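Recall from the previous chapter that SMILES is a line notation for molecules. Here it describes zinc ion.
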Amino acid sequence: MQRWSFILLILALSVPSFGDGRLVVVIDPGHGGENGGAPCFDHSSEKELTLPLSQMLEVELTQRGYDVVMTRRRDKYLSLKERGATAIDVGGDIFISIHGNASRHHDQRGFETYVLSSRAIVHDAAVFRAGNKSFHNSMLSHFMASQTIQRSAHLANQVHANLRKMWGPSGDRGVRQESMHVLLGLPMPAILVEVGFVDHPIEGKLLKTKKKRQEIAMALADGVDSFFKKKTK
Ligand SMILES: [Zn+2]
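With both inputs in hand, we obtain:
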């Protein structure tokens, strides 16, 4: 390996950037505008959970000293690409997409946390490489992609553990790997959280309450705290 590519690897390892700058958390309230998301038990839509919950998380994280950037602050449609572009433009240290779940028979409950599958990451690295023919750069993009997936998994585990503490173990549907398109191409740790089932008659009702939303926001913020504390140890 040439010296310059070794230096690039060291630079890649040094993220996130601590020091004078504050950590930037990008929150992505799922859906919006004409894209309502999943139908809730009371015929409202998922987007009516994701925005207020994301705003609660924003308040919580701001109080804890993070810089928070929201991909949207009002009820408007955003493409998945636009959401990712915001995260990249602001140099986000982490990215969290907030969603509510639904099932065919409205009988499922619980919470799930998603990270990109390694298959998606390999595809991602290939796309990245397509515009870049250098062998060393291709090694670097592979290396950075594997670093990002590991750190994303760590973030997912921390957030998920805190959701489990709050909801209880019976609703734990696990940390899962999928080709979540909103997470594709992001250079920072990125997760998608399904905080609960909006269409379940009991859980959906609970998700409407300010109290439960506040508890979820706290759990997510605790997860973010654990992720960064681990990194600074
Ligand atoms: Zn959703």
